[in-house]
# Entry
Amino acid sequence: MREPTFLILTALVEGPQHGYAILEEVRRISSGRVDLRAGTLYAVLDRLRTDGLAEVEREELVQSRLRRYYRLTAAGVRRLAEETARMRSNAEAAAVRLRRTGLALDGGAA
Amino acid sequence: MTLERRYRWLLACYPREHRDQYGEEMLGVLLDDSGGRRHPSVGDVRDLLHGALRIRLRYAVRRLSDNRWRDAGTVFGLFAALIMLGHTSRIMLINLAVAGLGGGWEGLGQWPSWHPWVATTAWVVAVVAALGGRSRIAAASAWCGAAIETARAGVEYAEYFSVFNLWQVAIAVTGAAALSVATPRPAIRLLGRGRLTLLLASAALLAAGPAITVLVPSGDAGAMRTDLIFTTSIGYLEVSLLGGGYVFCALALVSAPGWLRWRVFAFLAPVAATLVLTRIAFSDWGLLARPFSEGIPVGLALTHWLALALVPPFALAIAVAAVHRRVVDRYVPFPQPFATVLKVHIDGQRGKGAVYLFESSWKRPYSDRGVRKILARRSPPPAAPDGAARRTVAPTSGRSPDPAGVRRPGPRR
# Structure
């Protein structure tokens, strides 16, 4: 799973969000490191909907513009949990090896 | 030009289905995220163009993996195998006819070459397997036939610098590729018995036409020759037999259902492109006239090879896009915001007991039938309460879907 997909799924965990709110949430989660933009966001959302990992919760008209709220499906929650466990396991393995060889101390640079 | 307009230009790079689904929503997000800029940022432009490319590729893959393309692959694969069978078995049948007339193989002067027999066997297996829905066997056998055909074309080029019969390689390779993605459904279920009979009759005529002219003396009844199809001078009997084969073949394809017919034609596009390139564009009066030396063709130039490598796949891509555009254009979806407003309106009116939303004359191009279908899909009708009056909700002018045009039932006149 690519990073924007992971962060978008993470942004939807706490409740349904509309497009712009997802952009803001992803920037906040990644502390501004990932500058997600509309093109990538909707390419990922389209894929997530096709794969059944996210769905539209409701639609609203705000200032004559359509606003859709997206939420995670049960499959989306499961997939995010699996991916989180996989990434945690990989991160721990890397940290253990770095500590063992003395190249890094408590997650700091060598 | 406003920022919104500039973003709309960028969004135009996305496929129409994606724009219908997400266009307005994306525009809203882009404007919200613009931070008061007057021009789209470089990052936005790059991201939108990259996104459009990804979505276009995704849609193309999704459409091509559609079962209807795979079904068309079955039919085109069978068609290609039958045409190739007709061509490869032609020499074999002429040999047999000559041997029959001359009292044995001695009449031929020399033993017939082996490759038409092997190629014919490969295409027979491909045809039988495609008819029986054994797509893997059909594909494997067709690839063998295509390899033999490519080798034959290679020898022909090495000996005579001739690419005149390269269309056979094109149809053999396209047919084998089509059978490789084909569904394991027997072709008879897709084509029907009548069309299949026409195709088989066509292959029989294409295969046996020249042999029949050997067996049936037609006298000196004249001959004809054209630039594209009957390129060598042949008698009218043979022209009639081969022409009959082509007509049967065309009838079988033209009478197929639209979704199948257009897809099979798309598979034919690279073959037609190769035929036109090698027989018209490369001829001495064509756009890409090939070099001749003292009336004898010499090797193809780089331009010719590039044209042969690029034009047929490009023709296939254009044909696939045209099929999708044609198929997609038959559905006329509402823009998403309008559909949302309409849904809110429909729900409100249904709550008041309204049933019919639009009226239009049958003479109008956008009938209410399509509209009703869209509405039915978006909003399934609730069970009408017993004894509830059926009210009509309709704009007074037939075509314009004016949500405010609600007609209340008045007293009967």
User: Anything to note?
Assistant: Chain B touches chain A through 27 residues (CB under 8 Å). Residues 67-102 of chain B form the longest helix (36 residues). Residues 359-366, 384-413 of chain B have pLDDT under 50 and may be disordered. DSSP finds 14 helices and six strands in chain B.
